[in-house]
Design brief:
heterodimer; A: about 625 residues; mainly beta; Neuraminidase; 5-stranded antiparallel β-sheet; 4-stranded mixed β-sheet; 1 helix; 63 strands; B: 4-stranded antiparallel β-sheet; about 45% helix
Chain lengths: ~625, ~100
């Protein structure tokens, strides 16, 4: 039997501590004399559940990466074909632009923002030779058509340099190859093995074709072929016969997952290293007619047939990093359920929220609150009262030094609306300070510190949104430059010189409850619109973080209470981990590393929530494995 | 001790099972929201945390078989006049096959 030195060319090292762990350490074995353990750095291979597609479907097409894919078309339960596109963020699927025609069994290439789809079959049934291009939001039918209309084939490459190969042209199976240059398709040399329902990976000039069904009634094939831009060459075969499987990657590093063997759905996974296929860990659920995207080290599969169509998504990771996705976990409940409470100033382990509405019914005893609560990272403790019963307040600063302002005041019946008051909190008591300088209003975006805060926009009587903006310097409020977009029940985070505001809605004489998705950035003087906008138009959302790294969560998209979370990284917006409980008018605090939301309106007409959720950022860590005898 | 725990649980998507879960215990999904889980503490905890309902192997097999039988019946009933068997398989994919739980 070969020993370690024969395999690796090294002897097992005797070290007092683990070596630096990186890709160059992968595969090494060493003895840690301090812990007395034999250790190694090996690839971790595992499938995990991704977000479910909104619409279960099979025989769909897809392309992209593990964190930015699109899935389109396919057959849906109760409806033969769909033209719907969904976009995956690494966390959840959201609707994209519809294709120009309903179809299934297409080929696809490119990325989530520059996709290409070609061929397939339309209801009728009609074999298609059409091509469509995706720009990240809409599909455009382009003049270039395949020379051979076909279905159940695959493609590779990018939007401007794609390859199509194999397929079913009814009643014959095809080995035809065609290349797309961004304008037109040109026939190339055919596959060696004619087949349909095959899988492809790679680029236009360096592709890989594997698996598939070589003829009517035949079981899946293991045949693998490599394309050099001119012709196909047979290379080492898959271990598992399969067709209607998923896979993606490059000519030299690819994966194959699921499919149908000819007798059963498969969950088996194989990795291609450029020379050989090797068996890896199995998917969670066996299925066929699914689609794959991504790479051998970060793959994605979605859709397919178990016995009926599924929207299940699975993510494949095969690398030396142990990946932990960002996630929300339950925290300690607030003592009093409420909505429209103030933003929760502070951090995940030291925050404070005040006021809010505990109704219905709206009575002095069960309506708006003057109570505050403090969170210590595990439980909420009721604190001292504010002088007035408030809601929709701005709250900027920390648990021990915040400024609460722009309060909706409701001290009794009938309600009195005097939203000009302002209070400082010192960690124990609230003290009235100078009134705000601008119009009396509530539902502002508030951020900064007790001595350098900003409050922007809001609602004035009767319910009109405004663009007013104010700064607080620890003593008094000063009116600043107006914002770009009129809005209220908005949210903000950051500092007085680097702040962010988004969400909310515009309302007034000329517009009625129009959700605002523009992100506005404040530099201490003026507001500018960010290039990116949030995806979910909603109000009463929570936000926390910085101007260049902020999370926006929950919200009211009436009547729906959102559980979505969006991450703005200073450049773009992407979906992030969903809240366990969708809700609006919640409080938020913390950072994108360790955030917090609390309370809110989870179900219209029902008791307001006491629930707290804590956000933990995702991470990747290289961890050495301890070798044991069991 | 039995090798597996059988149960039903709805796949809620992201986080329903994690890579760490897959390393900690056997996990395999089947039709009818049936999940076969490695019979260890972490596997049992996973099923409980997912609001799963534990089943006997026989009960789980019955659910899976019923799902497969329903899919077979739907496949058999979905016909187009004059269509060949080959064309039907191209249109619908292969006829569902029996599944035996481990």
């Amino acid at each position: 039997m070969a020993d370690y030195s024969d395999i690796r060319g090294y002897r097992v090292k005797y070290l007092s501590s683990d070596p630096t762990l990186n890709s160059s350490t992968e595969g090494q074995v060493w003895y840690n004399s301090t812990s007395g353990t034999l250790k190694s750095l090996v690839q971790i291979k595992a499938w995990s559940a991704g977000g479910n597609m909104t619409t279960a479907r099979y025989t769909l097409a897809g392309t992209g990466t593990q964190t930015a894919s699109i899935g389109m078309g396919g057959e849906t339960p109760g409806s033969p074909n769909t033209n719907a596109t969904e976009e995956y963020s690494g966390y959840a699927w959201t609707a994209g632009g519809n294709m120009n025609a309903s179809k299934k069994e297409m080929g696809a290439a490119g990325t989530q923002t520059a996709g290409l789809i070609f061929g397939g079959i339309a209801p009728g049934p009609t074999l298609l030779n059409t091509t469509e291009e995706y720009d990240g939001s809409a599909w455009t039918a382009v003049p270039g058509t395949l020379n051979t209309a076909r279905r159940t084939f695959d493609g590779s490459g990018i939007q401007t340099a794609a390859l199509a190969f194999g397929g079913y042209i009814g009643p014959a199976y095809s080995n035809a190859t065609e290349a797309y240059d961004g304008t037109s398709w040109t026939s190339g040399n055919p596959l060696i093995t004619t087949r349909s329902n095959l899988t492809g990976a790679g680029t236009q000039t360096a592709s890989l074709a594997y698996g598939g069904q070589p003829g009517p009634g035949a079981p899946g094939t293991t045949a693998t072929e490599s394309y050099d831009g001119t012709s196909w060459t047979t290379v080492n075969s898959l271990s598992q016969q399969r067709y209607a499987a998923a896979g993606d990657g490059l000519q030299t590093v690819a994966f194959s997952a699921g499919g149908y063997s000819g007798t059963a759905n498969l969950s088996a996974t194989e990795e291609w290293d450029g020379t050989n296929w090797s068996t890896s860990t199995s998917m969670g659920t066996a299925r066929r007619a699914l689609i794959g995207s991504g790479s051998r080290t970060a793959g994605l599969v979605f859709g397919g047939v178990v016995t009926v169509a599924t929207g299940a998504t699975e993510e494949y990771n095969s690398n030396i990093n142990a990946i932990t996705k960002a996630a929300w976990a339950s925290g300690g409940n607030m003592n009093t359920g409420r909505q429209a409470l103030s933003n929760a100033a502070g951090t995940q382990t030291a925050s404070m929220a005040v006021g809010g509405n505990a109704g219905p019914p709206f009575t002095p005893s069960s309506g708006y609150l003057n109570t505050s609560e403090e969170y210590n990272g595990s439980s909420w403790t009721t604190g001292n009262n504010l002088g007035e019963r408030t809601g929709y307040s701005g709250n900027s600063g920390t648990q021990t030094a915040s400024i609460v302002s722009h309060n909706f005041i409701f001290n009794g019946t009938p309600p009195s609306l005097t939203p000009s008051t302002s209070y400082e909190y010192d960690g124990s008591t609230f003290s009235a300070v100078n009134n705000i300088a601008g119009s009396g209003r509530y539902g502002v975006a508030a951020f900064g510190t007790q001595t350098a805060a900003v409050a922007a926009c809001g609602s004035i009587v009767p319910a009109n949104s405004v663009t007013e903006s104010e700064e607080y310097d620890g003593t008094s409020w000063t009116v600043g430059n107006p914002t770009i977009v009129e809005r209220q029940r908005t949210t903000g985070t950051g500092t007085q010189t680097a702040g962010l505001m988004t969400a909310g809605f515009d309302n007034g004489p000329a517009v009625s409850y129009s959700p605002a998705t523009v992100i506005e950035l404040y530099d201490g003087t003026s507001w500018t619109a960010a290039a990116a906008s949030i995806n979910d138009g909603a109000w009463q959302r929570a936000s926390f973080g910085t101007q260049t790294n902020a999370l926006i969560s929950g919200g009211n998209a009436s009547p729906v209470r959102l559980n979505s979370t969006e991450l703005y990284d200073g450049t773009a917006v992407s979906s992030n981990a969903n809240l366990a409980t969708g809700r609006a008018a919640l409080g938020g605090a913390g950072t994108v590393t360790a955030g917090l939301v609390a309370a809110g309106d989870a179900t219209p007409g029902s008791a307001y929530s006491t629930a707290t959720e804590e956000y933990t950022e995702g991470s990747e860590a290289i961890t050495a494995s301890t070798l044991t005898t069991s | 001790m039995a090798l597996f725990i059988y149960g039903t649980a709805t796949n809620t998507g992201k986080g329903f099972f994690t890579a760490e879960d897959r390393r900690n215990f056997f996990l395999r999904g089947y039709p009818g929201d049936v999940w076969v889980v490695g019979n260890n503490e972490k596997g049992a905890l996973w099923l409980a945390e997912k609001n799963g309902v534990e089943k006997t192997k026989s009960e789980a097999q019955t659910i899976v078989t019923a799902e497969v039988d329903a899919a077979k019946a739907a496949w058999d009933a979905n016909n187009v006049e004059g269509e060949t068997a080959e064309a039907k398989e191209q249109r619908l994919g292969p006829r569902p096959t029996d599944i035996t739980l481990p």
